[in-house]
């Protein structure tokens, strides 16, 4: 995703719109089993505020993940609002150098920026459905697909000791 702000950068109050659909499959999302299923979509509007370029819009990614409970493959639609300040390096203040996205040419790549935002917006855990019953902790059967007869009743060891003491087990 390459943006060209040659004109916008010189026009305080100006607005530019960008729309992308780009293949991100070569990027590593840093999580095992997590990949892009289709091109990432980004629609951004960039305003020249005089101090910086204020970029905002929406980013959408179609991911393939594995469920944290049953380990089956699942699709996950990620969609979030993007908002950031892009600053031309020679004009950046100390603070902007630390907190904003800095560019030094009229035309620059925003792939890394978009990828970073995708990673930040990933859920803590992928679950295929709120009803997912997960795997049996004893035999590993996917309980969404099959029943097993394992005893998965978890006994509190303190209660077990008490039951023994009372001669109940
Ligand atoms: Zn699941
Ligand atoms: Zn089982």
Describe, in plain words, how this protein is organized in 3D.
It is a single chain. By secondary structure, the chain is an alpha+beta fold. A hairpin with a 4-residue loop joins strand 4 and strand 5. The chain is elongated, with a radius of gyration of 25 Å. The structure holds zinc ion (ZN) (2 copies). The site of one zinc ion has 6 residues, from loops. One zinc ion binds next to loops.
Structural key phrases:
169 residues; alpha+beta; 2 domains; six-stranded mixed sheet; two-stranded antiparallel sheet; 3 helices; 34% strand; binds zinc ion
Produce a short descriptive summary.
This protein is an alpha+beta fold and 169 residues long. The protein contains 3 helices and 8 strands; from the N terminus they run ββββββαββαα.
Blueprint (SSEs and pairs):
Layout: E1 2-4, E2 15-22, E3 35-36, E4 40-48, E5 53-66, E6 73-88, H1 94-99, E7 101-103, E8 107-109, H2 111-120, H3 157-165
């Amino acid at each position: 995703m390459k943006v060209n702000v040659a004109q916008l950068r010189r026009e305080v109050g100006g607005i530019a719109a960008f729309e992308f659909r780009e293949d991100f499959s070569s990027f590593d999302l840093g999580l095992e089993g997590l990949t892009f299923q289709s091109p990432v979509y980004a629609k951004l509007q960039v305003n020249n505020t005089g101090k910086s370029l204020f970029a905002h819009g929406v980013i959408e990614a179609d991911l393939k993940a594995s469920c944290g409970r049953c380990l089956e493959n699942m699709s996950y639609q990620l969609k979030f609002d993007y908002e950031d300040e892009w600053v031309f390096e020679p004009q950046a203040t100390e603070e902007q150098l630390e907190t904003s996205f800095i560019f030094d040419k009229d035309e620059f790549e925003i792939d890394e920026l978009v990828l970073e935002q995708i990673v930040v917006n990933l859920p803590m855990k992928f679950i295929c459905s709120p009803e997912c019953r997960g795997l049996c902790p004893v035999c590993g059967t996917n309980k969404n697909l099959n029943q097993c007869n394992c005893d998965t009743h978890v006994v509190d060891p303190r209660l077990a000791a008490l039951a023994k003491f009372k001669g109940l087990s």
